[in-house]
């Protein structure tokens, strides 16, 4: 992966500051998050000194006006060495913070599976938090590290910044945090790596806060041949007794069915994967966003082809795996593409739909985008049943979502 806006490895941000923006808007027009900005600037100064690196940290306020905000944010999450979460009650109700956490955690898991390294996530207290205010997964994390002043544990950064008598303790806490950032980055040794599409990510804290759009079920419908219904002469090597057992990327070293692999990816995105099959559907077709995973050979089957045409009347996101090492598929690629195009003409032109996906790595890269597009379309098109409102009630006003 290229380092994009950060140019080379030396310019990668040492830390990514994840924080919840204040919902309070002062009448005098002052910036309600100015204290977070001060902490960021002070920490950047100390991190820059202890590391000697030119890009100590990243905060979303650094994004220039008029640039692509999601791209800039994703680049920073993909490049930073450490994820610094500034914890407050608002942090766990912020959709953006939950997605930032999920994005970075997915990057860490993809690189450090089986390795004995620190998680590269540092929770820091912005305000005082009791154990009951933390999600279960965070209670085991060390959010009051050794060496920090006791006033930090009692008040958080905001408290010791606001109270003048704790000025020296604030300086000590910032310096200790800078040292912790450097130490964690060196021990984790996290390489730059891709993160999942932001639109596809669930909120890492949705279960804790009861969020509706966190672990939303994502239906993964597999349309593939079964061993007992293969067309004459088709190689049995890639198929199983059921559609979800289809393993298009099977090799001597890899035997994971595509449905199971997709389950893993969707779970990492923070959603609840639900595997279904075209011949034996178990889920309500309208109950959740859907991604259709299609064996190109089934497009030639009259019965399955007709069912795919029916689905295509209300198009869904489609992914069509293709293995170049499967000689039969490689030889028939052009004809298979024509038949797939014929039965899924509407679905294949949707953003996020992809055919001829040549490897499991390419499939992993394509699936988050397909999930994100499926979620977006679901929320736009799913039937809405608003509650009845008494005529005497004032019309509710809507506000833009806050971070």
Automatic annotation (TrEMBL):
InterPro entries: FxsC_C (IPR026367), FxsC_N (IPR047603), TIR_dom (IPR000157), Toll_tir_struct_dom_sf (IPR035897)
SUPFAM superfamilies (alphabetical): Toll/Interleukin receptor TIR domain
Superkingdom in the source lineage: Bacteria
A Pfam cross-reference name: TIR_2
Stretches assigned to the TIR domain: 15-144
NCBIfam families, sorted: FxsC_Cterm, FxsC_Nterm
Protein name per Swiss-Prot or TrEMBL: TIR domain-containing protein
């Amino acid at each position: 992966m290229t380092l994009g806006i950060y140019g080379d490895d030396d310019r990668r941000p040492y830390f990514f500051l994840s924080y919840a923006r204040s919902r309070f808007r002062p009448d005098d027009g002052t910036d309600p998050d100015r204290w977070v900005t001060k902490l960021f600037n002070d920490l950047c100064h100390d991190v820059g000194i202890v590391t000697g690196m030119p890009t100590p940290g990243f905060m979303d306020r650094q994004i220039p006006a008029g640039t692509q905000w999601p791209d800039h944010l994703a680049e920073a999450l993909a490049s930073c060495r450490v994820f610094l979460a500034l914890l407050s009650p608002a942090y766990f109700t912020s959709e953006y913070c939950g997605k930032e956490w999920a994005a970075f955690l997915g990057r860490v898991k993809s690189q450090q599976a089986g390795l004995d390294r620190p998680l590269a996530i540092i929770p820091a207290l912005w305000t005082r938090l009791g154990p009951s205010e933390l999600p279960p997964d965070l209670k085991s994390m060390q959010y009051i590290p050794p060496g920090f002043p006791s006033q930090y544990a009692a008040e958080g950064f905001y408290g010791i910044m606001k109270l003048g008598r704790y000025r020296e303790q604030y300086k000590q806490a910032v310096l200790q945090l800078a040292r912790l950032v450097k130490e964690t980055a060196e021990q984790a040794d996290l390489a730059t790596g891709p993160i999942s599409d932001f639109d596809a990510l669930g909120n890492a804290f949705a279960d804790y806060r009861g969020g509706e759009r966190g672990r939303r079920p994502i239906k993964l419908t597999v349309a593939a041949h079964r061993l007992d219904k293969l067309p004459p002469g088709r190689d049995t090597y890639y198929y199983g007794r059921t559609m979800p057992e289809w393993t298009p990327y099977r090799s001597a070293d890899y035997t994971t069915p595509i449905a199971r692999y997709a389950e893993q990816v969707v779970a990492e995105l923070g959603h609840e994967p639900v595997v279904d099959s075209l011949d034996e559907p178990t889920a309500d077709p309208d109950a959740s966003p859907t991604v259709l995973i299609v064996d190109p050979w089934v497009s030639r089957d009259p019965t399955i082809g007709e069912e795919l045409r029916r689905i295509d009347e209300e198009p869904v996101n489609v992914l069509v795996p293709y293995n170049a090492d499967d000689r039969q598929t490689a030889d028939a690629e052009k004809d298979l593409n024509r038949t797939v195009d014929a039965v899924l003409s509407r679905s294949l032109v949707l953003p996020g739909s992809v055919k001829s996906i040549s490897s499991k790595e390419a499939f992993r890269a394509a699936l988050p985008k397909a999930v994100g597009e499926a979620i977006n379309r679901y929320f736009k098109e799913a039937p809405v049943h608003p509650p009845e409102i008494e005529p005497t009630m004032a019309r509710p006003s809507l506000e833009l979502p806050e971070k």
